[in-house]
Design goal:
Keywords: Coiled coil. One of its GO terms (cellular component) is membrane. This is Putative fatty acid desaturase. With about 475 residues, the protein is mostly helical. The chain folds into 2 domains: about 325 residues, no CATH class; about 70 residues. About 60% of the residues lie in helices and about 0% in strands. The protein is built from 15 helices and 4 strands.
């Protein structure tokens, strides 16, 4: 089940967690104080490059009836849409560049090249998701309302089709996000479902109209005779952007190690515990500079969740300091290759489509969802009793703080040892059963042999008796059959 007590799960003391929070505050302050012209040049160059790629792509598509022109134009447009969505639209809307006071690059004025209105996404995503990251019943992005991503959500028959729903969501990701944010917007504004002319509905319809007209009417029409191939190119670029955005988001939120939390964890949650929840509820994937840029630097999802409003180009240096803190406080830093992280999320989607009775691991020790209860009943070295749970203490040899990373490692060893012991017990039981069965078979064979021997003896006795009686009768008559 999901984490209810983050302190017990992390194996840190209150003082440890508060100290971690102070150090992360220090990271924030240092980045805020060092923001300047270098960062401003970065975002302005990014905007210029993205717009240049889009103009070039749309220009090439005027000749899109030629195969190579179509491929080139589609590729340029796809890259432009990805950059606009990931590094610009997403990050600008987070307020990462509001400190520049540039009205063009501000979260309140930027409108991204996606189906849903930026304003609706900001309220749904920045509030619901980033405030309540992976909290069941509060974070609407946990499965986006259509996927079961934790066993804490009861299984329903509709979940059997979630592998198919996942494919549809990937291909139409911008529409899925738009509908998702639109529904949250109506809840946040208290809009009744029957008010069709409400502001959320009007804003949503207006943005859809603009996007559809731009990509599927105006730009194709501008290319004249090439309108059909241009329309296909626009649709393909949108599809590529959707698939990439979907993959990046799922790799940052749903691989193993991105933990979930119950609503009880929010009770009296301190700012330091909020930091810790972001660290434990997010995951990174490994990327070089080019892939990091194309992902909007969301390959640093942990850093993004810790500091969603700090400039994305600073995440690599923030990541170094966060890694150091994870080492210092013995916390896991969840990362892996893009392929690995996605396959873990993909496995969870397909696995949790099935009822729980078909799953092997327990709800408290499932790879996709862990909790403090996974440590109950497991004896870890160098621990002390802390309420219902054991807590690791400082390593007596190295003097190093021991936290969740050590607990997970030692719990894995303990569980493997327990599994080996159970297998050995099972093997011994099987051997005992085999020996017992062999003994019983031997006893049955002996009993069968004894019964057969007895039966043969009885049969021989009966034959002998019959022969004896026959001789007696023959001995009582003469040669002519008369009595002697």
């Amino acid at each position: 089940m999901a984490i209810t007590d983050i302190q017990a799960f992390s194996h840190l003391t209150d003082a440890d967690i508060e100290a971690l929070g102070h150090e992360l505050d220090s990271v924030r302050r240092s980045i805020e104080l060092s923001r300047g012209e270098r960062d401003a040049k970065y975002i302005r160059r990014t905007i210029a490059a993205q717009r240049g790629l889009e103009v070039a792509g749309r220009a090439v598509l005027f000749g899109s009836r030629n195969r190579w022109a179509w491929l080139t134009g589609t590729a340029l447009l796809s890259v432009a849409k990805i950059i606009e969505n990931m590094e610009l639209g997403h990050n600008v809307s987070h307020g990462q560049w509001d400190w520049m006071n540039d009205p063009e690059i501000h979260s309140t004025t930027w409108e991204w090249d996606m189906t849903g209105p930026s304003a609706q996404w900001r309220r749904a995503h920045n509030y619901s998701h980033h405030t309540y990251t992976n909290v069941l019943g509060k974070d609407e992005d946990l499965g986006f309302g259509i996927l079961r991503m934790t066993r804490d959500e009861p299984w329903r028959p509709i979940h059997l089709v979630q592998p198919l729903a996942n494919l549809v969501l990937a291909a139409t990701f911008e529409w899925g996000i738009a509908l998702h944010d639109w529904s949250i917007e109506k809840v946040l504004t208290g809009t009744p479902p029957w008010e069709l002319r409400s502001k959320p509905n009007r804003d949503f319809a207006r943005k859809i109209g603009r996007q559809v007209a731009k990509d599927f009417v105006i730009y194709p029409a501008l290319t004249g005779p090439a309108w059909k191939s241009t329309l296909k190119a626009n649709a393909t670029a949108n599809l590529i952007r959707n698939l990439w955005a979907y993959a990046v988001i799922f790799c940052g939120h749903f691989p193993d190690g991105a933990e979930k939390f119950t609503i009880e964890q929010l009770e009296d949650e301190t700012p330091a515990e909020w930091y810790l929840r972001q660290m434990l509820g997010s995951a990174n994937f490994k990327a070089g500079p080019a892939m990091a840029f194309m992902s909007g630097n969301l390959c640093y999802q942990i850093e993004h969740h810790l500091f969603p409003d700090l400039p994305s180009n600073r995440y690599p240096e923030i990541a170094e300091r966060v890694r150091e803190l994870c080492d210092k406080y013995d916390l896991p830093y969840t990362t892996g290759s893009l392929g690995k992280q996605y396959l873990l999320a993909f496995r969870t989607i397909h696995k949790l489509a099935l009822p729980d009775r078909f799953l092997k691991r327990t709800a408290d020790d499932a790879p996709e969802t862990s909790s403090e209860r996974k440590f109950i009943g497991i004896t870890l070295p160098h621990t002390e009793r802390w309420g219902e749970h054991n807590r690791l203490i400082t390593d007596p040899v190295t003097g190093k703080r021991r936290g969740l990373r050590s607990a997970l490692h030692e719990a894995k060893i303990a569980l493997e040892e327990k599994a080996r012991h159970e297998k050995e017990v099972l093997r011994e039981a099987k051997r005992a059963l085999k020996d017992k069965a062999a003994h019983e078979r031997a006893a049955l064979r002996e009993a069968g042999t004894a019964l057969r021997d007895k039966a043969r003896e009885e049969q021989a006795t009966r034959r002998a008796n019959r022969r004896g009686r026959g001789r007696i009768r023959l001995g009582g008559f003469g040669m002519r059959g008369r009595p002697a």
